[in-house]
Amino acid sequence: MVQRHHATHLHYDFRLEMDNVLKSWAVPKEPPSQPSVKRLAVEVEDHPVSYINFEGTIPEGMYGAGKVEIWDKGTYTLKGRSKDKIEFTLHGEKLTGDYALIRFKGDKNWLLIKKKQSK
Q: What is the value of pTM for the model shown?
């Protein structure tokens, strides 16, 4: 699921349900829908699975204060996972196809990439 989050700065919260939590990344620009487009994805704390349907306003003074809306929702198929790379196929309403998250700098910075479709 992807939430559009109007906090201090507009960003997208990209979440994959895995290990009984929502693994989460903050993506400063709209997640890629075209092949080979790369987006920074900053890993943030895991969220409880119960957060999967959350939409609303987080009050001022609280962490993440601002408006949260569901931008895309669907399922995914995990294709591979290691410490520095997660490969998966998204079956969302907006985002579909093969994607990868690749850790590229430090512990928190990843790239979210839509892969080219093989012929």
A: 0.91
